[in-house]
Amino acid sequence: MDDVDTERGSPVDDAAAAARALEHVVDPVIAVTEGTITYANEAARDAFELGDADREAATALGTRWTHLATVIDETTVGTARQVDLADHRERVRIHRGTSGATLTFERDGTGADATAESVGDSRSGASDRLVKDRALEEAPVGITISDPDREDNPLVYVNEAYEEMTGYEFDEVVGRNCRFLQGEDSDEAAIADMAAAIDEDRPVTVELKNYRKDGTEFWNEVTIAPVRDEDGRVTNYVGFQNDITARKEAELALERQTEELQYILDRVEGLIQDVTAVVAGSTDRSELEREVCARIAAEDAYDGVWIGERNPATGTIEVRSSVGDGPDGGTVATDTGHPAAEALATTDPAVETVDGLTRAAFPLSYNGIEYGVVTIRTPRAIDDRETVILSALARAVASGVNARETSRVLATDAVVAVELEVTDRTLAPVALSAAADCRLEYSRSVHRTDDETASLFTVTGASADEITAAADELADADCRIVVERDEECLVEVTGGEDLVGWLSERGVRTKAIEAEAGRARVTLEIPRSSNVRSVVEAVEDRYDGTDVRSFQQREPDGETRQEFAARLEEALTDRQFGALQRAYLGGYFEWPRPTTGEELAQSMGVSRPTFHEHLRTAEAKLCRAFFGDA
């Protein structure tokens, strides 16, 4: 009977007095504990025909209990709840205690005894207060109440969530102003906003850094609102604290990343423009490398930069140009963990930070040809975004080096002649020599206006029909008969694995290709200043079954045949060069002529008058070159 409060002069714990009072209540009143009726007043005993042995609630109350049992379980301890049982035209008031519940049945919603009404009314205010108190204590956010009528507006209440958030116990904070959570990094502007809102009796929400009892920081979203009485006077301030540390740190991290990205873009944009100008304007590779190093080192963010090239003979990377301190001794061993060695080994950027110093290395590679590595030193970290930008910068530098090396091949005889043997049948001459059982000898190549390279080969040992039949089996390449003679044919090969064009893009001249019985002997001329090993490795990677037969270095000696040919070729337009080349290789200057001007014109895709105009102009330039008038 500890759930029943008579409030009629008897103490709450006087069970006998409470029972006597309830006997006079005309509405049925029962007490239930774990499904058993532990008490029933006279009205309940009569209404439900309760005997001394019939005390099971399910049996006594029937269908009523099915609904009431669920409602009792859902009712918070210490509160009251009212339920309508429509099927029985009853209203039941439930008072939930710690060990059971007291049920008062009101018939038709009327007829409640004055005593029962007084019991319900006396409990309702207390129940409302219990619900509010419990809500404050169990709220998932920190709640505080302060009293502005007392000096310094101290706290008079904090809930459990506040204690857990701050680490302070109730007794440690009550009587103190809430500012004790503030510290040296708390936002003064946010604090001033709260003070102004309190002075003006208005609500406010701010975010500021607070400090727990153990000194750790957390971001606190604080909302303060005035509480007024019936006359509108502010009696208290209620505060709500929400730990937003995770969200705030994410926001701050995003702001930092945005600022860093903007800084990188602003800084690197000018760097890329300047380096691009250097690449376009330098006259040789050494000048390009010096200017690139100087421009990168001019950035405040970088302490130094150097460009090095691998030396296979010594197993080191040798510095070609540098600004600031380069590697000790001017070299880096290729078998060490230095970022420059790692970048060349993996062909990917390599970044290393040791004792606050970052070294970032980026391979200088273009079309699979290695031209060295650029290494940057900086006292700050280099993130993924900056790595991507600097990698693009390195590719631009490698492109510039490639252009300089390609131009050197046309103007110098200081080359390394490399002879290779290739058996990969993706190479058209190899496949044709095997399929038609013939011999192909490379003559020259012409770069067409559509950026396609057409290579001309003289074929012996097979008829035009046999060559055409073999060409039909080529996967991607096209082979066309240009001139047919009794013992040989001139064929034009385009598309497919274009070895000549591919090598030309890498600064390498194809000197000769001789293919027979499914094997091709290829002679290349590579500038001595280029990375010969890298070029050879690229060919080996591209074509299976490639073997190196010989290396030979040649020194310049006056104007060589290559220099003369390069000078003449520079004077001719593509069409003039093509007309002269096809006329010579097609036997047009022989007698009797095996081909006509009409046929050669068709092979170039031009009219016969246009072909003859190009041929005459080319012949005139050739004569001037020979007789000193060019």
UniProtKB/TrEMBL annotation:
This is PAS domain-containing protein. InterPro entries: BAT_GAF/HTH-assoc, HTH_bacterioopsin, PAC, PAS, PAS-assoc_C, PAS-like_dom_sf. PROSITE patterns: PAC, PAS. Residues 107-128 are annotated as: Disordered. Gene3D superfamilies: PAS domain (3.30.450.20). Residues 134-201 form the PAS domain. Residues 204-256 form the PAC domain. The lineage of its organism: Archaea, Methanobacteriati, Methanobacteriota, Stenosarchaea group, Halobacteria. Keywords: Chromophore, Flavoprotein, FMN, Transcription, Transcription regulation.
